[in-house]
Design goal:
Keywords: DNA-binding, Transcription, Transcription regulation
Pfam families: HTH_20 (PF12840)
Structural class: mainly alpha
Strand content: 5-15%
Number of helices: 7
Protein name: Transcriptional regulator
Number of strands: 5
Largest sheet: 3 strands, antiparallel
Order of helices and strands: EHHEHHEEEHHH
Low-confidence stretches: none
InterPro entries: ArsR-like_HTH (IPR011991), HTH_ArsR_DNA-bd_dom (IPR001845), HTH_MetalResp_TranReg (IPR051081), WH-like_DNA-bd_sf (IPR036388), WH_DNA-bd_sf (IPR036390)
CATH architecture of one domain: Orthogonal Bundle
Mean pLDDT: 92
GO molecular function, one term: DNA binding
Length: about 190
C-alpha cells in the first residue's frame, strides 16, 4: 500500500536543504500553523527576518515549500506554505552517492535528536504543566519478528494511520486542539 501524497526524496540537494535545524523548524511551524510570512516566522523563531527569508528561499528552491500568492495583501508580501502530503527518503536511495549517504544519515540523526528533545521536554514537565494531557500521552513499544519486507509494510501502515489523522476534518465542537507530535521508529535490534 503506497501512501497518498508522499514525496519520495532521492536528490541529495533536496535532502541537504532539509538537513538544517532552522529549516526543519520552519517546516514544522508551517506544517502545524499553516501559511506564514518570513516576518511572522522570524518572530516565532527569534531569528532575523533576512535569515528566515534566506532559508525560506532554499526550501522553496528545493520545492519543500511553495509560495501562496493569493494570501498576499500587496506585491511585496510573500506567504509560504507546505505542499500537501509528506516527505520520505531512505539512506539506501543514496547508495551510489557517498555525499548523499552522509547527508541522509546526518538528517536522520538530526531528526532523532529533535524527537528525543521534545520527548525529554515533555517528561521533564511537572504534573501541573502536563495537565490532562498526561491521560492521553503515550509510549508504546513491541518486539516483533519481521522480514525486511514486513517491516516496510508495517512502516507503510503506520504512515497511512498518521496521514489519516493528519487529513481528518477537525470537528467544530469548541474544544481546543493543540499540536501533538507522534513519531515511530522501527529497526532491527537485539534485546
Amino acid at each position: 500500500m503506497a501512501q497518498q501524497n508522499t514525496r519520495k526524496i532521492t536528490d541529495s540537494g533536496t535532502l541537504a536543504a532539509l538537513a538544517h535545524p532552522l529549516r526543519r523548524r520552519l517546516l514544522d511551524i508551517l506544517r502545524v500553523d499553516g501559511p506564514a510570512t518570513a516576518s511572522s516566522l522570524a518572530e516565532k523563531t527569534d531569528q532575523a527576518i533576512a535569515n528566515v527569508s534566506h532559508h525560506l528561499r532554499v526550501l522553496g528552491t528545493s520545492n519543500l515549500i511553495e509560495e501562496a500568492p493569493e494570501l498576499a495583501r500587496d506585491k511585496r508580501e510573500r506567504w509560504w506554505r507546505m505542499p500537501t502530503g509528506s516527505l520520505r527518503w531512505s539512506t539506501s536511495d543514496f547508495d551510489d552517492d557517498p555525499a548523499g549517504q552522509v547527508i541522509a544519515e546526518t538528517l536522520q540523526q538530526m531528526l532523532l535528536d529533535q524527537h528525543i528533545k521534545i520527548l525529554r521536554d515533555w517528561y521533564g514537565k511537572d504534573r501541573d504543566e502536563q495537565g490532562e494531557w498526561v491521560n492521553g500521552a503515550f509510549s508504546s513499544d513491541k518486539w516483533l519478528r519481521l522480514t525486511p519486507q514486513e517491516l516496510f509494510e508495517l512502516s507503510e501502515q503506520v504512515g497511512e494511520l498518521f496521514q489519516r489523522w493528519g487529513r481528518r476534518e477537525i470537528p467544530d465542537d469548541g474544544q481546543q486542539r493543540e499540536p501533538v507530535l507522534v513519531f515511530a521508529y522501527g529497526m532491527p535490534a537485539k534485546p
